[in-house]
Amino acid sequence: MKFASKIVLALGIVCFLMMYAGCKKHKDEPVPFTDQQLDLLNKAVWKVTAVTLGGVDKMSDYANFQLTLSGTKGQTTFNFSTSGRPALSPWPSSGQFTFVTGSTTNLSRNDTPPVIVQYAVTATNLNMSFSFTGNGYTNRTANVTGDWIFTFGH
Questions:
Q1: N vs C: which end of the chain shows fewer Cβ within 10 Å?
Q2: Residues near 80 by Cβ (< 8 Å), separated by ≥ 6?
Q3: Burial (CB count <10 Å: 0-12, 13-18, 19+), residue 150
Q4: Is 104 helix (H, G, I), strand (E, B) or coil?
Q5: What is the pLDDT of residue 25?
Q6: Strand 94-99 and strand 78-83: pairing?
Q7: Domain 33-153 CATH class label
Q8: d(Cα 133, Cα 116) in Å, to the nearest integer?
Q9: Are residues 115 and 100 in contact, defined by beta-carbon separation less than 8 angstroms?
Q10: Higher per-residue pLDDT: 4 or 65
């Protein structure tokens, strides 16, 4: 009887070890950078708090300007839309953007030619700066060329 109980105990230990060895270790996969950024960027509508063109305050022209960024995690192209733009603006009413490969601070708008936007985002603030060359969107009758800085909040 003692011998049989030892065999059962040994088989139990072997089975336990085999089951334990077969279990895969659960490692949390790192969240892709674009998904992390998208979580911050598309939380809410971004309302402008400051605007400059070449260091000159343009806030009075953009008092009602808002930016909405949206997209689906795992994708490479995302959307934006704007409201409250002045008649001429370096922002189209809507478009698409991508994150610049290899950069943690740049995205590319789908303008022609593409506009590279340097950005910094937190849970409550978004800063965007870019150089715009060409005519402004909407009427395309006046030039809004220069270095733009937009600051947004929720």
A1: N
A2: 67, 68, 69, 70, 94, 95, 96, 97, 109
A3: buried
A4: coil
A5: 62
A6: antiparallel
A7: mainly beta
A8: 11
A9: no
A10: 65
The tokens for 35 are: 């998904």
pTM (2 decimals)? Answer: 0.78
Residue 1 is given by DSSP the state -
Write out the two tokens for 40: 């911050």
CA distances from 139 to 93, 108, 144 (A): 12, 23, 12
Report pLDDT for 30. Answer: 87
- Cβ neighbors of 119 (< 8 A, separation 6 or more) are 105, 106, 107, 126, 127, 128, 129
Structure tokens at 44: 């809410």
Q: pLDDT tens across 106-146, in order?
A: 999 998 889 999 999 999 999 999 999 876 676 444 678 89
Decide if 31 contacts 140 (C-beta within 8 A): no
Write down the pLDDT at residue 141.
42
Long-range contacts of 121-127 (CB under 8 A, 24+ apart): 121/37, 121/40, 121/41, 122/40, 123/40, 123/43, 124/153, 124/154, 125/151, 125/152, 125/153, 126/41, 126/46, 126/67, 126/151, 126/152, 126/153, 127/151, 127/152
